[in-house]
Amino acid sequence: MGIYFDPAVETMPREELEKLQLERLKWQATRCYHNSPFYKNKMDRAGVVPENMKTLEDIQRIPFVTKDELRQEQEEYPPLGRYVLADPEEWGELHPSTGTTGRPVNTIWSHGDTERITDFTARVLYGLGVRKGDIIQNGFSYGLWVAGMSTHYAAQKMKCFIIPIGAAMSERHIEYLVQLGPTFLAATPSFALYIAERIKEQGINPRDLQLRGGFFGGEGGTESEATRHKLESRLGIDAYDIYGLAEIGPTMAAECTEKAGLHWTEDHHLIEIINPETNEPCNPGELGILVITHLTREATPMLRYWSNDYASITYETCRCGRTHARSEGGIVGRADDLIIYRGAKFYPLQVEKIVRSFNELSDEFKIVLFSEEGSGLESCTIQVELVAGASEKPIKEQLTKALKEELLVTPQVEYLPHGSLERTTFKAKRILDQRKK
């Protein structure tokens, strides 16, 4: 296969790719309008007639779909709402969202959806270097969470050997890393760093492992220079970012070996970057909200799903030769996680960038926001951990300065002994907001 899993698709000229997208968009919008009361009501209110769509830009007339809207739809029309288009005999799997920001939203994969998800997941894994015969230690959660299943199916399709351990049993992970010699590790960045921490504590040299790569998703951070460096140096690997979300699909974008941003599978997903203040498209390179439309999903298609994730987009051909759009720097942050403190706005990923650049600190941190007694003034404390044997004195002034320059505000810093903060196998919770509303 060379460097491409599907050369005809991955290197398709933009003009041909956009022609394919328009054809599939018209098909999807039309079937949603005629078969889903949920979508028909939305498009009727907006005066949209799918059959009249002539260009990709016409999608901008279709209203956005939000997660809260999906929750409300499923509460009013339980359990799945009125946007399941596939007949029940075609249903393959149920996959709800994680519920970390509210009640989970149920989505259905048809049998055909599962095949397509498996195919484009295999494509993005191939792009970051996975090949037939690789041993993949799958540290993504299995069952209802989508990433573990899609990675498993794709690895099977690629004829890899899979260790389906999931997001648990860190000591078993280490045992298998040593004994079975996996060549790729899949996990959230937080869990991978915890495994690396435990490997170091046990005196295991990462150069003695067979790992040559890892792909990490479920939370941001892999494309942060400091986090990538720690993943790569501590595990002796090349670390790659991978992205997906339950409402749209897992592992639908990933870096290639050039590490030049997330490659989108644009033959299956139409990607927009929208200015949240104007609801208008951003120019290439500008930061905005990632909005995704299913072009091929059968069971529970999303039209203009408002992801709440911040990213940018470029249509320049990657150095690898792939022509699909990329998001350089990956996902910058979630609108849900935006912290507004004393007029400054920042994301946990910005704190991560600074904290993980100091060797004297562990990978863990927490942002604690609270209202001071009496005055009621807001206060922000960033809790960090000192590694064993380290002191705060040599870095105290430098860390405070770095945080101020990055966040444009000066938080307090609380230095904790190593091991004080929670380690997680899933998505790390970095914010504790105790402010009086």
Would you mind describing this structure in some detail?
With 437 residues, the chain is an alpha/beta fold. The protein is 30% helix and 23% strand. The protein has helices at 7-10, 14-35, 37-46, 67-76, 111-127, 146-157, 170-179, 189-201, 225-235, 348-355, 396-407; strands at residues 91-96, 106-110, 135-138, 161-163, 184-187, 213-216, 238-245, 249-254, 262-264, 269-274, 288-294, 305-311, 326-327, 333-334, 339-341, 344-346, 361-371, 378-386, 412-416, 431-434. A hairpin with a 3-residue loop joins strand 7 (238-245) and strand 8 (249-254). The longest helix has 22 residues, at 14-35. The protein starts with 6 loop residues before the first helix and ends with a strand. 45% of the residues are buried.
Which terms summarize this structure?
alpha/beta; 437 residues; GMP Synthetase, Chain A, domain 3; four-stranded antiparallel beta sheet; 2 domains; eight-stranded mixed beta sheet; single chain; Rossmann fold
Fold blueprint:
Blueprint: H1 7-10, H2 14-35, H3 37-46, H4 67-76, E1 91-96, E2 106-110, H5 111-127, E3 135-138, H6 146-157, E4 161-163, H7 170-179, E5 184-187, H8 189-201, E6 213-216, H9 225-235, E7 238-245, E8 249-254, E9 262-264, E10 269-274, E11 288-294, E12 305-311, E13 326-327, E14 333-334, E15 339-341, E16 344-346, H10 348-355, E17 361-371, E18 378-386, H11 396-407, E19 412-416, E20 431-434
Parallel strand pairs: 3-4, 3-5, 5-6, 6-7, 17-20, 18-19
Antiparallel strand pairs: 1-2, 7-8, 8-9, 9-13, 10-11, 11-12, 12-14, 15-16, 17-18
